[in-house]
Amino acid sequence: MLRTYDVATVRAAEAPLLAAGEPLMLRAARALANRVVWELRARSLRVYGTSIAVFVGGGNNGGDALYAGAHLAARGAAVTIVLCAEQAHEAGLARALECGARVVRAVEPGERGATGEHGVADEQSVAGEPARIAREQAARAAVWIDGLLGIGARGPAREPVASIIDALNDELDSSPAEPLVVAVDTPSGIDAQTGALPGPALRAHLTVTMGAAKPGLVLDPARRRAGKVDLVDLAFERTLGDWSVSVLGDADVADIWPLPGATSHKYTRGVVGVLAGSERYPGAGILAVSGARAMGPGYVRYLGDERLGKHLVGMFPDVVCAEGRVQAYCVGSGNPAGGEKTIRTAIDAAIPIVIDAGSLCGVAGNIATLGEKLPETAVLTPHAGEASGLLARLGQSASREEIESAPFVYARRIAELTGATVVLKGAVDVVAGPDGHAYAQGGAPGWRGVAGSGDVTAGAVASMLAIAEPETHQPGGPALLAAAALHVHARAAAIAAGCEFDEQLLGEASAADPRLTAPALTDARQRAGHPICATDIARSIPVALAEILG
User: Fold this and answer.
1) 64 annotated ligand binder
2) What is the per-residue pLDDT for 371?
3) Per the record, what are the reactions this protein catalyses (predicted)?
4) Which CATH superfamily is domain 250-507+519-549 in?
5) pLDDT exceeding 90 applies to what percent of the chain?
6) Phi, psi for residue 52 in degrees, rounded to 5
């Protein structure tokens, strides 16, 4: 499990160690340099003579970048330090100069000077705008190290850094030989807490994050700027307390999955009741049932349209079209009739329920009118457009675009307003529990974005709640189980599309040993894959589970 921690928590943990003289920066820089060496070797490139541009801001991650540049220069790399702030970490810059790095100033020094007493004679002054200077240096380099902005940055990048980021992204887009871009701690320009992009943000292939992962690295849209993530252990993560957002992997899902035993039967393995589909949207009912039964419950009941039920039984003879005992419901996909009654039944009986699509706004309207919040065992599964409508019913205003720009923020808001567990579906599915438990499950290929994929999701989540029903009554249980189902769904989509699952966490960067156990980026590239339909995802769920549980 990849756990992330609030930025304020990480900064508070670092502060006493830095004050006590702990060499955190030196350890972080060595691990960063080792990761760059590893990537060069994976590309059959020598460190000696490779051109590396280090873009340095005025914060601590600029210091990390300077010391890493010094390590690489000492090994014979042609390192150029590009100073992009009025001031830089003095000791780090002095060390880089001692090791033979070349220094180019993109931004003139402030009143105190960018370097203090060190290195003035070794700096190369270049006339011109900061963005142009930075881009010229970038164009000459095979590797870029991004040390412009760190976790202390708030809001959009200010000038001249904003223009420098734009220029570097333009160079990245137009370069015939794409450089390797390595971000220090977080890519410059992202909101490290929420994953939002308040302004321009540099695209990295790899982020080497220090001490503990930050939420913005795993949350969209910033996740797409971070690339793969390496975590440098600085020995303070165990002191951080409660985590912020987590990402489940195969081992985590396998740990919580209740495997059937010799005496298991259809009622002990979970019974799912699905009320989905309508005359106008019959496919939604078929897909929700497909997602539910593919997860391996003991029993699936279809509770919707009678004509659709007859068709479903023809497709899936194991599906029963009759009321009866259930351990979790799935309601709303395809705007079925009778959703409100089923929701009330589930809530009154404390039965977990997934509420999707057409049933979402009705639930929100009842909350707004009656002031009655939902239990944690109610799981809402909107996409961004549905979330916008749901918030409007709750007296809040947020457009689809605003929600997509900060999904974690809005998922948490909906959870707080409704009392429910929220799954905000997207390229990275965000799960937010009313008690603060949160998950970000990505890795699916873009091919997953097809009609009906969300209906399969709703059925799969409901099935997971039924299969592990006792866990749903534990604090944070519904969020954990929803995240597990989302991981399976994403893995199934990758299998269906013929892609590698996009595992974000590569491993742990080492401050001591460049022979890392994590794969190189060249070993982690995805195959392009091919188009799929929602039915393909449902059919691939058992294959994904076999890989996860095997």
Assistant:
1) yes
2) 83
3) (6S)-NADHX + ADP = AMP + phosphate + NADH + H(+); (6S)-NADPHX + ADP = AMP + phosphate + NADPH + H(+); (6R)-NADPHX = (6S)-NADPHX; (6R)-NADHX = (6S)-NADHX
4) Ribokinase (3.40.1190.20)
5) 83
6) -130, 125
